[in-house]
Amino acid sequence: MHDSRPTTTPSQATGEATVHANDVDLAVQAFGDPSTPAILLISGAEASMDWWDDDFTARLAASGRYVIRYDTRDTGRSTTFPVGAPTYTQDDLLADAVGVLDAYGLAAAHIVGISMGGVSHSGSASSTRNGSCRSP
């Protein structure tokens, strides 16, 4: 597994940023107040962060949450790999999630995933970095 520390830090303003972690670029958006509890939204395979509807993310942010969604590897505007030949593992996907948290200066977040995004991160997110997952 590669070092998950990002080499670039996104602005805390709402809008898209690029986080470089684990030798890949991940497209990321954040909504809400960074001082409130964080929720990291992780989409399923082949689903970009836009799967998480803007109205849904706005409602979460309005309820007092700092919402972060991102394109996982091979989706949206994040780094892609040749079709049928990905060189990464589930551990790399987990490290990417931690890299996103690191880029935003977050020690932990509530993890919400759909399909592969839920399976990949539900049972093992807290083991990647002790305590990084508040609620899988």
Overall shape: it is globular
From the N-terminal CA to the C-terminal CA, the straight-line distance is 22 Å
What proportion of the residues form beta strands (DSSP E)? Answer: 15-25%
> Which radius of gyration do the C-alpha atoms yield?
13 Å
**What is the strand tally?**
6
Low-confidence stretches: 1-14, 123-128, 130-136
Number of helices: 4
Largest sheet: 6 strands, mixed
- Average of per-residue pLDDT values: 75
Strand order across the biggest sheet? 1-2-4-3-5-6
* Structural class assignment: alpha/beta
Helix content: 25-40%
Order of helices and strands: EEEHEHEHHE
Describe the fold and architecture.
With 136 residues, the chain is an alpha/beta fold. It contains four helices and six strands, in the order E-E-E-H-E-H-E-H-H-E. The chain has helices at residues 54-62, 90-103, 116-122, 125-128, and strands at residues 15-21, 24-31, 38-42, 66-70, 109-113, 133-135. The protein has a six-stranded mixed β-sheet with strand order 1-2-4-3-5-6. The longest helix has 14 residues, at 90-103.
